[in-house]
């Protein structure tokens, strides 16, 4: 189940959050290759956040998924989520950071022959 958690210093009052959540859900689902009903999105606004030493609109995102994340998927997630935040919240793509975690990365499959 991919989970996208976004914190921003933008006030969400007056923002169509239903549309924002829908766009983010569709994007994550399509890019990661998981059904929409398995995607969770959290967006927190009015967070005390600075980027580059100033309080202009910015966002920090973190996505955690079990599989489906490689370098190409990371690039697509950063570009697409950045575009959505720019269009919906007026956050420049240069002021958005996304941390990406695949919980299956680094796992070693068990040795089928334990004597080796």
UniProtKB/TrEMBL annotation:
Position of the signal peptide: none
Annotated organism of origin: Sesamum angolense
Superkingdom field: Eukaryota
Gene3D superfamilies per record: Macrophage Migration Inhibitory Factor
One Gene Ontology MF term: phenylpyruvate tautomerase activity
GO CC annotations on file: extracellular space
Protein name: Macrophage migration inhibitory factor
Family, as annotated: Belongs to the MIF family.
């Amino acid at each position: 189940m991919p989970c996208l958690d976004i914190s921003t210093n933008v006030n969400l009052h007056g923002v169509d959050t239903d549309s924002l959540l829908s766009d983010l859900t569709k994007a994550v689902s399509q890019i990661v290759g998981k059904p929409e009903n398995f995607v969770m999105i959290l967006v927190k606004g009015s967070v005390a956040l600075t980027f580059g030493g100033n309080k202009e609109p910015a966002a920090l995102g973190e996505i955690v998924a079990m599989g489906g994340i490689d370098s190409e998927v990371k690039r697509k997630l950063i570009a697409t989520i950045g575009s959505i935040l720019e269009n919906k919240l007026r956050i420049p793509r240069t002021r958005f950071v996304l941390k990406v975690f695949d919980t299956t990365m680094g796992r070693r499959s068990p040795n089928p022959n334990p004597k080796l």
